[in-house]
Design goal:
By secondary structure, the chain is mainly beta. It has three helices and 15 strands. The protein has helices at residues 5-8, 113-116, 226-250; strands spanning 14-19, 27-37, 42-46, 61-68, 73-90, 96-104, 109-110, 119-120, 125-133, 136-139, 145-149, 153-159, 178-187, 195-207, 214-224. The strands form two sheets. It has an eight-stranded antiparallel sheet. The protein has a six-stranded antiparallel beta barrel with strand order 1-2-3-6-5-4. A hairpin with a 7-residue loop joins β1 (14-19) and β2. The longest helix has 25 residues, at 226-250. The two termini are 34 Å apart.
């Protein structure tokens, strides 16, 4: 199936920048298209809520969006890279905002939405959890932080030392370890109690050099209930809609 980039990525369409899509720790950032120049294969987009800079490190970057075909809804993406960072981009209404110019490559292809979207968290959309490992229980408020979550996996940030300077016992976790979580999705824009469900995971990567003070642990989700999957789907959708609303208001 061929895709017409000009029709898929026009101005004003909502998009997601996906970093390292083909790894176990992908991250997506919502944005919106301001302008296009398909002769030069460039697209100007709004800077995401957490801006991309010259210091942003990644191995792969894709610009993606959802399209509706005759029978289903799919996500289409194109490989890209930043070429220009604009501090004062003038919009049609004369307002000024921060923007990013990306240069893309063809062809556009269908992407795997379930594995690509590890949702970075914010003050409005957060994840709390209890983790069980070696008959011990650990909590987000004390022992670790969830950096991002998707249908495929979870990214944990673990402090190397706990309050009394002692090594964090979670640093002993190795690749292949099975971990069980009680997940609580906190959506501050939705009424009602937080959404909670159990998840089984397996450690697939441990990055001891993530920073001087923290270790990054990548988890693959190996077991999730249908109810949990539906709750996570709604949570990610709500967070992406909130990002697009924020970008539209800023513009």
């Amino acid at each position: 199936m061929g895709f017409d980039v000009k029709k898929i990525f026009p101005p004003s369409v909502g998009v997601d920048l996906v970093f390292n899509m083909n790894t176990m720790t992908p991250i997506s950032k919502s944005s919106i298209i301001h302008d296009t120049n398909h002769d030069d294969k460039t697209i100007t987009i709004a800077q995401p809520r957490v801006p991309i800079t010259n210091e942003t490190r990644f191995d792969q970057l894709h610009l993606t969006t959802i399209i509706h075909t005759e029978h289903r809804k799919i996500r289409v993406g194109i490989p890209c890279h930043p070429t220009q960072f604009i501090d004062k981009y003038q919009l049609a209404n004369k307002a000024v905002t921060k923007a990013l110019v990306i240069e893309y490559q063809l062809p556009a292809v269908e992407t795997n939405i379930r594995s690509a979207f590890r949702r970075p968290l914010s003050s409005l959309h957060d994840v709390k959890a209890k983790m069980r490992c070696d008959k011990q229980e650990f909590y987000t408020s004390r022992d670790f932080k969830i950096k991002g979550i998707s249908f495929a996996g979870i990214g944990l940030v673990v402090r190397k030392n706990i309050g009394n300077k002692a090594p964090n016992p979670l640093l002993n976790i190795k690749s292949g370890t099975s971990l069980t979580f009680g997940i609580i999705l906190v959506d501050k824009e939705q009424k009602g109690p937080p959404m909670a469900f159990p998840v089984k995971t397996r450690v697939v990567r441990v990055n001891q050099n993530y920073s001087q003070t923290h270790v990054l642990i990548g988890l693959e989700i190996t077991g999730i209930t249908k109810e949990g999957e539906a709750l996570l789907n709604q949570f990610i959708h709500n967070a992406q809609v909130d990002d697009l609303k924020w970008l539209s208001k800023r513009g």
